[in-house]
Structures are given as C-alpha cells and as structure tokens.
Design goal:
CATH architecture of the largest domain in chain A: 3-Layer(aba) Sandwich
Number of helices of chain A: 13
Radius of gyration of chain A: 19 Å
Strand order of the largest sheet of chain A: 3-2-4-7-1-8-11-10-9
Structural class of chain A: alpha/beta
Strand content of chain A: 15-25%
Oligomer: homodimer
Distance between the termini of chain A: 22 Å
Low-confidence stretches of chain A: none
CATH class of the largest domain in chain A: Alpha Beta
CATH superfamily of the largest domain in chain A: Thiolase/Chalcone synthase
Order of helices and strands of chain A: EHEHEHEHHHHEEEHEHEHHHHEE
Number of strands of chain A: 11
Number of domains of chain A: 2
CATH topology of the largest domain in chain A: Peroxisomal Thiolase, Chain A, domain 1
Chain lengths: ~375, ~375
C-alpha cells in the first residue's frame, strides 16, 4: 500500500550571476523553503536529503551532499548527491517521491545548487559540453549548442518553417521572466532582437540559448499524513516518470523527438488520476528554444505537428489556454543546472497555491514539470495538483 | 507495510590498474551480476538503475548514469548517478533498498565504476583530496593521507601503542587479498615490510594506504516476493543505516571516532532482527589501516578500547572469531572509489552463499558492510543475512 506524496515547502535564490558562495546560496534556498511550510518545520525532523548538482565550482568541493546537512541545519542527516546532468533536480525529486511513497521516510528535502560563474569561460563550456556525448560529439568539436542546433535545423526543415517560431518561444519566455523577481533575465525582448542576434550555432542565435546561471532551489516533500499536519495547502505529486536514452544523437531514431521524454511522460500519466489535456500549465526544459518546441509534442501537451502553430498563435503564452514556462523557463528564469529541476517545482508550488504574483496562471490546479539531462539522455516528468 | 529486500545477483571486475575502458568495465561487472542470478534474469525487467561513481576519467564522460542503461542493456531504463565521495556505492545501495522496500520497484541494479588510472598522478591526488574538506584542509596543503594521519597520530597517542597495530591490519588484509582472485594486490607482506616502508604521512607509511584502483562492481536487488522467484539463495538486507558529519575534522568532537559511523550503525541495528555480537564477518572501510581500527569500535563489533588487542591477537583474521575484510579490504582488494561499496556487497553475497572459495568464512550467516565517504562526512552501514 503506497501513500500519496506532497510538496509542503519550496524556496529558491534568484537565478543569475551571483556573488554569494555555494554554502550561502544553499542556506538561502533552504531557509526560504523551510519558512514556506505553513505551520513551520523543525529541520531536525527531516529524514533524508538529496543534493542535485553537476559540480559547482568545477568540483572544488567534493562530497557536497554533506553541505546539505550542514546548511539545513541537521547535523548527521543521511545525505546523497545525485546527478543526471541537467535533469539532476528531477532525478533527486523522483527518488524522494519513491522513497516517501513506500514509507521509508516521512520528510525529505531536495536541494539543487550550482555556482557556474566561479568557473572561467572555457571551463564553463567544458561543464556544459560534458553533459552531452563525449567520444562521438564533444571530442569531435560539437558544442552543446551545436547538438541542439542539429535538432533545430532538422525540425525547421521537416516542418518547412522559419526561425520565427524559435523567436516566438524566446519572446514569450522573456515576457514571463520579466514578471518573475527571481529570474536571471527580467527584461522583454522583441522578435527583431531575436532575429538580429549574433548566431551561436546556426540556426540558433544568442536569444535561442539559456544563460549560464548560479543559483539554488530547495523543496520539502512529505508523505500524505505528515503533509496534512504541516499545511492545509499541500501540492500533491500525482505521478513521476523517469527514463533514459543513448548519450549520442547518432544512436537515436529521431532528431526531432526525445524518446526519454515520451517514455517518462507515459509513466507519469500511468500513475496519475488525470489525462494530458487536463494539464493547465507546464514548466518544460527549454535550454534552447527548440527544446520547448520538441517538448510540447513529446509531452502530449499539444497534438502532434501543432507545436509551431500553438506557439506562434500565443496559445502557450501566460494568458493562453496552456501557459508554458510561466516562470520564464530556463531561457529567461535561468539555468543553474542542478537547481533547474528543483526550481521548476518551486514555480509550480507557488502557481498551484495561487502565490505566483504577476505571473499567476488563474485557477491553476494541475501542472507538469519536465527536466532533461544532456541532449535527452536522461529525463523526468512530474505531475502536480493542488 | 514494507517488504523485505534481497540481493539476488552480484559481480565485479578484478580491481587494479586495468587497460579496459569504463564502458567495458561496466559491461563486465553487469554481465557477471546477471549471470549469477540463479534462475536467470532478463535485464529488461529491471525497474531502476543507480550508478555510483566519483567521476572516472576526471569526468570526461558526463551524465554517466546513461551508460548503465546502455551497458545492461536496457534502453530507456530510468537511471541516476549517485555520489557520496567514497561512500557512493553504499549511498546507491541504501537508496535502492528504500525504494524497493516501499514497493516503488521490483528490481533495481546498483553499479559502481571508477577509472582512476586514466588520470595523471596530480589529477588523481586532486580527485582523492577533493573528497575531504576543501577550504580548511585541502587548500591549506593537507593531503587525504594527511587527514587520516592526524587521526592515526592521535589514536596511537591516546592508546599509548606503537605503529605495529597498524602493521597488523596491513599484514592481515594482504593475507586475505592473496586468496582473492579479484584483488588488486594478491601478495602477502610481512610486519617488517610494513615497518620499513617509506613514510607517506607520518605515522602512515606506504603499506598503511590503499591503492588507487580501477574497477567496476554491480549488484541486483529485488523485493522479497520477486527475489524468491529468482533464486533459492537470496541474501537478505536486514538493516541499512546512513548518516553524515561535517566535512572538516575541525568541526568534530573526536579525531578517534567517526560520528557518522556510529549514527549509521545504530540505525542499521534498529531495523535488524539481530544484535552486533551476532555479526560473523564484516567488510569495513579501510582506506588507511587506521580506518579499520576506528571502525571496529565505532561499529560496536569489538568492545570499546579493545580494537588493538583484537587486531594484534589475530581475532579479526580469516580464522579468528570475527573475520574483518576477508576480501582483502580496500587495503589489498583495492579501492576504485564508487565501486568499493558495491564490491563489499559482492563479497558478502558470495560469503553468505558459501561461494567465497579459499577465503570462505565457514558457516557465515550474518555480515556487515561499512562504507565511508571522505574522512567520515558520509557513511552507510548495511546488515545482510543468508
């Protein structure tokens, strides 16, 4: 007999280029998460802690999970560092969900942390590139943007459309980010800005790429009976799928669909009591604009083939029928790798509780979070409801 | 209602300086683990995979958990890379135990993998040193051997004994390693070899330090009902504790006792149906000889203060009343970081099934595995029975 699992607290630092140390970022996110638990929570009650990170500071600090017990603070708490490239946050959250469901713990904290700006630019490029495939991609000179550019090139050709659909994603996500005080970029851009931006890896230009961000995020998860003691407004986890794929694009059947996303979302809905069309808002992994377009159809949020039309017609905008990346997404909210997937939960926690301020999606009851590692070698999909 | 969990298969490569690639090492260990499942197992049935690694090859391959699905092979399987410094294996195994206990999965594979010899010597020293504390230890010039040397110095002074007790650990573990065809060092040493070895960090000499090894290990875990379908000789997990401590020695109350070990073992025995004195053999984390001495008393395997006497009198030897590190331990079997904790399970799987060949502990029914990260900032303790 498995029990339900809920998010009872969530917090995060602003994402961006931040002066704070990793320890300080972690403390800030954990402090905000604990403070958001309606009836308060003694950190000493938490049973397990997962730290999602690719290795802030280029692994200057080893065994980093121990920092989580120190920062909470909860000296002695069992901790584990988890990593699935940029899906590290989703991987940690899904594991927490499984452990809680079975009753091996009452309360688990999952934190994500990255301090990218401590790395010099070449080192940063390495940390991003290494998340793709190494032998047949990175060491042959393919950058991480280049990997997604191959997907974008193929997508635009197959659909016989132009770069303006990529621009529509960028403009929308910057618009949402401008309403998010925690976003890395809080400014609007125009379609002309997108069109005229310097190329990074054709057809992707500067505004097709998410920024390299520092940041931390933290979420407190509880099993059902405990969640009800801590808050009258838990956010329920209704399903959580995970999947993998080959590291290299060359091993895959398609360049314009991520099999790991399709597998993970199928598993998530197999567990959940509602269908894809009942999802009212989604945080999807838009490390590059093309990734949001792939996600719309892979996740079953829009009918096959209709991603571009939905995007160009504004149906995925904040006031559209399916707001996607109301937070600004990786594109504008920012992408501190390990903290990204945890940050998606922070957004959905506030949205589903009606606490999202200027970017609130009205009467949002059911949301989806989609987190990708590398170019789709790892993926998690979570379904949440209020 | 939680279910029991069992080990149903286990395998590993030889530990040592190996020419094989990370992918080849992983395939070999997984192949041996699958082949050891008595009634066979289709890898496609496995629900989850955890890859324990600190980062073989200095993170030349990112998102490494995806390699696990590829190597098993089980395309698409959800995978997670876990890391708790040298306790990564234990951390992955403990998470698998929790997930299986609650029924979120039927079958989980945990693999450990490290390819240390691909790193040049300075890089290797970095990978080891980074697992200790960074700001107050490593960057101040304290090596990882130096950290344990501080503990050893204090231990010998408090107990008013000489280095010969460290030598007794080294001689015993080399003796056991000589009986293990998978060990890095398969040769005996004498007390004189230990005494006359070049110093590394006083009072620790060359034979007080484990080697830097390559290797992979893999274990298949199943929940009780599934385990019974797959084998008539499952090895049951009776308890599994985890704990953490400060990264820096300076933050701790004692230099001669690891609080994380004490916390983890207390939790493990709280779950188990037997007492410490019922343990018949133990694989403990002897990255340095001093670590085995600390473990004996911290784990409650010998009475407080009696670790040196038990060791010098041979009571922890293969034919003694409590064989410790029958495999050779990290000292002689070798220490491929992430694979070490998984390798301890491989040893206990064979010992408890009576398959350990020349180093078989007669009629072994109950065993303990103890895995440490860094200088004790993370720790797991598992109790197994046949």
């Amino acid at each position: 007999m498995t029990e339900r699992v809920a998010v009872v607290g969530a917090g995060q630092t602003r994402f961006g280029v931040l002066p704070s140390s990793p320890r300080a970022l972690l403390r800030e996110a954990l402090g905000e998460a604990l403070a958001s638990v309606d009836r308060g929570l003694d950190p000493g009650r938490i049973d397990e802690g997962y730290l999602a990170s690719l290795g802030f500071g280029g692994w200057q600090i080893g065994n980093p999970a121990a920092l989580l017990a120190e920062a909470l603070p909860h000296p002695g708490m069992p901790v584990l560092h988890v990593e699935d490239a940029c899906a590290s946050g989703g991987g940690g959250l899904r594991t927490a969900y499984q452990v809680l469901r079975g009753g091996s713990a009452d309360l688990v904290v999952v934190a994500g942390l990255e301090k990218m700006s401590d790395n010099p630019p070449l080192r940063r490029r390495y940390w991003l590139g290494v998340s793709g495939e190494t032998e047949f991609e990175r060491l042959c000179g393919l950058t991480f943007a280049g990997v997604y550019a191959l997907m974008a090139e193929r997508y635009l050709r197959e659909r016989a459309i132009g770069r303006e659909v990529l621009g529509a994603v960028a403009v929308k996500n910057h618009e949402n980010g401008a309403l998010n005080p925690k976003a890395h970029f809080q400014k609007r851009i125009t379609r002309e800005d997108h069109e005229n931006a310097p190329p990074v890896a054709e057809p992707l230009g500067l505004f097709d790429c998410c920024p390299v961000s520092d940041g931390a995020a933290a979420v407190v998860l509880a099993r059902g009976s405990v969640a009800r003691q801590l808050t009258d407004s838990p956010v329920w986890l209704e399903g959580f799928g995970g999947a993998s794929d080959t590291l290299a694009l060359a091993g895959r059947e398609s360049l314009t669909s991520l099999a790991a996303t399709r597998r993970a979302v199928r598993e998530a809905f197999r567990q959940a009591p509602f269908e894809p069309r009942k999802v009212q808002l989604a945080e999807v992994h838009d490390c590059f604009t093309i990734a949001e377009l792939l996600a719309l159809e892979d996740l079953g949020l829009v009918p096959e083939g209709e991603g571009p039309a939905w995007t160009l017609e504004g149906r995925t905008g904040l006031t559209g029928e399916l707001p996607v990346n109301a937070s600004g997404g990786l594109k504008a909210k920012g992408h501190p790798l390990g903290a990204t997937g945890v940050g998606q939960f922070v957004e959905l926690f506030h949205q589903l509780r009606g606490e999202a301020g200027k970017r609130q999606v009205p009467e949002a009851e059911r949301g989806l979070a989609h987190n990708i590692g590398g170019s789709g070698a790892t993926c998690t999909v979570a379904l949440l409801s209020r």
